[in-house]
Amino acid sequence: MQDPLELLDIPSLLSDEERDIQATVAAYLSGHVRPHVASWFEAGVLPRELAQELGKLGVLGMHLQGYGCAGTSALAYGLACLELEAVDSGIRSFVSVQGSLSMYSIWKYGSEEQKQEWLPRLAAGEAIGCFGLTEPDFGSNPSGMRTRAVRDGADWVLNGTKTWITNGGLADVATVWARTEEGIRGFLVPRGTPGFSTQDIKQKLSMRASVTSELVLEDVRLPESARLPLATSLRAPLTCLNEARFGIVFGAVGAARDSLQAALDYSGTRIQFDQPIASFQLTQRKLASMTVQVSNAMLLALHLARLKEAGTLKPEQISVGKYNNVESAIAIARESRTVLGANGISLEYSPLRHANNLESVLTYEGTSDIHLLSIGHALTGIAAFR
Ligand code: TGC
Ligand code: FAD
Hints:
The relative contact order is 0.12. By secondary structure, the chain is α+β, with helices and mostly antiparallel strands. The chain is about 50% helix and about 15% strand. Keywords: FAD, Flavoprotein, Oxidoreductase, Transit peptide.
């Protein structure tokens, strides 16, 4: 029987291989992660062992070629992100940061030695990576970063603080962006390097099944071989962000779809005024409108994936997807929550957990304001960020 949420039969636009990858990821998650994710969220933990499980599943750096990575299409990677975020944004975030920020920064800008050293272990989930761009005083505006790397003989000495770093407290290697006399450069900082420490951020109301940390660098001495040789300006970290933002375009559809599914299921069984609440026109309006929005978001994601595969995807097009799909997903998660009444505030149901997580997704990887300004820049030719 056709899934009622697939009103437009969007899976017919996918290849058999793409559908198989999506189904494999969804099946693994429903058996191994979905049953536990609400309790991880409640406890504010993400078990480290999950990394190796996700490595075996093949989703870590899955869109990269070589070095133990699966080398799938961009769309297959997007579909995996969709299924991961349908479970919890924190799980998708783990995979985004590992594959699209940590691994991608090494894959794209690293030396052959750095790739050989880190990529196979990161792909297998035997090592965990993080990506430190944001600082306490520079979030949307990373060009102002204060973290400095200064040459000292053949070495570099790094000082500074990065904050809100996903996977920071778990990471075996951090990609850290720092200002040098020649401009912004990237460095690989292994855990255990003297002067490098991490502190996890507690009391989060969002992304609770995810580790978010501060990275502190106090006279961290690194050899020249720790610098990413091909990263020569702020353009390098911003290029990495394009990869992660692309995954979020799909991930947001997953959170929205899962919220809508919960509302649809609930509305068919919850009886009020002697009828299932699904029989009320106002409930059907909510369900129908959300179905249209989820379908729109998915079609947009598919279009961007095809552009990415054709090699023509532009940053402002990713901004359209990130802005639209995350704004749409959070509205859907909140609307779905209302269909569940009081039960909607319980962790037994997913919509409010998704909505809370999406508060972070709305902010990270460029806030909605930043993406609107990026679209505005493309439209007018005028950069209005500053
Ligand atoms: P601007 O002068 O515009 O740009 C500097 C250089 O970078 C180039 N560029 C890009 N290149 C590739 N992709 C993009 N998206 C790019 N955006 C800009 C630009 O062409 C220029 O190149 P060049 O060679 O001419 O020097 O820089 P700006 O300082 O005016 O800033 C532009 C702005 C505001 C768009 C940028 O700073 C920005 O995107 N800010 C948002 C910061 C952000 O998104 N941080 C995310 C941190 S990582 C994270 O949140 C992970 S969350 C966990 C998870 O993903 O799950
Ligand atoms: P600010 O930049 O201070 O923005 C505050 C408000 O001002 C926002 O509404 C913003 O839209 C608005 N604003 C800012 N500039 C403008 C402007 N020019 N015009 C109009 N409005 C503007 N960072 C990493 O480097 N690595 C990570 O792994 C990572 N993981 C994260 C995980 C979580 C759970 C969260 C919440 C954040 C994470 N971040 C990470 C940080 C994230 O990228 C930043 O929070 C984000 O870039 C916004 O920066 P900020 O929080 O400093 O907000």
